[in-house]
Design brief:
Layout lengths: L1 E5 L7 H34 L5 H16 L3 H15 L13 E4 L4 E4 L4 E6 L2 E5 L5 H7 L6 E6 L5 E6 L13 E6 L3 E5 L4 E3 L1 H20 L2 H10 L2 H23 L3 E5 L4 H4 L7 H5 L3 H15 L3 E4 L16 E3 L2 E4 L3 E4 H14 L18
Parallel strand pairs: 8-11, 11-12
Antiparallel strand pairs: 1-7, 2-6, 3-4, 4-5, 6-7, 8-9, 9-10, 13-14, 14-15
Length: 372
């Protein structure tokens, strides 16, 4: 799990205010040095045509420490970040900005009795006060976190993203299967008949492309600034919707002691063809993110999660197994008449999930990130 807390003095005295100014200057200096070191390391990695951490470290470790004044472990963390970034094809020519620093257990520690964190900065070790809420304190109580990311936001505040690892609970005994059909018109429909609508998401999917096209056509500096502000809004909204829906689905399965069954939609964008007008809706469909959220939340709740073959789940009647015809949100079976198409698909998924024995869990790491 990831918890964040802003740096701020515990007591608003003049001494603490002076100390905070000193800490802010030290934090900024460290962020700049770390980013400059990352850019220098990236140049070295590209010049030797390698993203292997050991090779890059042997080539530039001593020079980076001497040039930028980073501690040994901050230098190692910079090398690790650069190598991980350059391995991604789309980020091969990235430049690094002074916005964050990675920390491990050698250069970061937590002290519970006064809720402070100790981090290594450019000119030594600093212990910093934090403004923690009740949720963060309850999560940190009794824990010894070993990894964190120090982040400076655009508004000038400093946050520490602390990673906490915990053991997943034992899987509960399942008494049935809850099937979930994922879609673009409706985010999800489960086999109980619960519909998870996304009218606002669909509205935004239609709204933002029009706004972007309008600003792109203008091409002015003001339009470019507006595009930058708009970037990410739709993504953040979809992420919030997926978090809310995944939590509701997992709670339903947990309360009824059932397994959760989903279609394995891996590669669906490549397997299916849509008209040009529908391409944006398909590409912005965040079903994989919803599946990831369901994966780690079922793990945390002790619920089995199984993936089934999606073939014919939307074309087969769940009552008789015969092929039918789907028309929009309706499914027509010759024997059983008209029914809700998504509910029919969810019930087919539930039946397929019941045939999986023993259940295979689509899991993720025990170190869970909110909004993975």
């Amino acid at each position: 799990m990831i918890y964040s807390s802003p740096w701020k003095p515990c007591v608003p005295s003049s001494a603490n205010s002076t100390l905070l100014l000193e800490q802010r200057a030290e934090l900024d200096a460290t962020l700049c040095a770390f980013a400059d070191a990352c850019n220098a390391i990236a140049d070295v990695a590209r010049s030797i045509h390698s993203t292997n951490k050991v090779k890059v470290q042997h080539t530039c470790y001593q020079d980076i420490r001497a040039r930028f004044g980073l501690s040994a472990n901050l230098t190692i963390r910079a090398i690790a970040r650069v190598c991980a970034t350059l391995k991604v094809k789309a980020k091969m020519h990235s430049t690094f900005q002074p916005t964050s620093i990675d920390y491990d257990q050698r250069i970061f520690s937590f002290r519970e009795w006064d809720w402070t964190f100790s981090v290594t900065l450019l000119h030594g070790r600093y212990r910093l006060d934090t403004g923690l809420g009740d949720r963060q304190r309850s999560a940190l109580k009794g824990k010894q976190p070993t990894a964190a990311v120090l982040v400076k936001r655009r508004d000038g505040t400093y946050w520490l993203h602390v990673q906490l690892s915990s053991d997943a609970p034992l899987l509960m005994e399942s008494r049935g299967v809850l099937g979930v059909d994922l879609g673009r018109r409706r985010v999800a429909v489960d086999s109980d008949g619960t519909i998870y609508e996304a009218e606002e998401v669909n509205r935004l999917r239609q709204h933002y492309p029009k706004v972007r096209r309008s600003f792109q056509a203008k091409g002015t500096k003001g339009a470019k600034r507006a595009l930058k502000r708009l970037s990410g809004r739709e993504r953040r909204h979809m992420r919030h919707v997926n978090h809310v829906i995944s939590r509701r689905i997992v709670n339903t399965a947990q309360d009824s002691h059932r397994m959760l069954a989903l279609e394995d939609l891996t590669g669906i964008r490549q397997r299916t063809k849509v008209r040009k007008a529908q391409r944006y809706g398909q590409q912005s469909w965040a079903f994989y993110q919803l599946r990831q959220f369901l994966a780690y939340k079922t793990q945390d709740a002790g619920v089995w999660l199984v993936l089934v073959n999606p073939a014919y789940t939307s074309q087969m009647c769940h009552r008789c197994g015969e092929r039918g015809q789907r028309d929009g949100l309706q499914f027509l079976c010759k024997q059983h008449g008209t029914m809700d198409a998504d509910l029919n698909g969810a019930q087919n998924i539930a039946m397929l999930g019941a045939e999986v024995a023993p259940p295979e869990r689509a899991g993720c790491s025990s170190a869970k990130a909110a909004g993975l």
